[in-house]
Amino acid sequence: MRLSALFVAVAAAAATLAPVSTAHAADGYDRCPDGHYCMFSALDGNGDMVALRGDHPDLTTVGMNDRAKSDWNRTPWTIYLWSGLHYTGCTAVTSSGPTGKGNFYPTYRDFFSSVQFGGPGGPGCGTPPGEDG
Prior knowledge:
alpha+beta; Gamma-B Crystallin, domain 1; 12% helix; G_crystallin-like; signal
């Protein structure tokens, strides 16, 4: 009997000394791992996310075809976003570095179907009228 009372007292003391974690899960753009190109289904890095490390000719395979509204390029590569599957249609560019994060122009939300790391890219989609800054 004494042994089980001692065990309960030690277990209770250990439980009160356990460290409490104040860390929280990453959200928004911060979910994108270093070295990846990430696309998000909502603005400001919210919604569903895909993190890519190489070319993707068909974003349907990762559930992001015609669904992306924002992105972050955390790679050393320039990313070419193609309007069509298998690198067809027109392209828009996402630079690497601090300028490679943000929301797509409204015209280009839910628009892209394939992703190419590096070049050569294709005909530019251009800046939509009235959305030049």
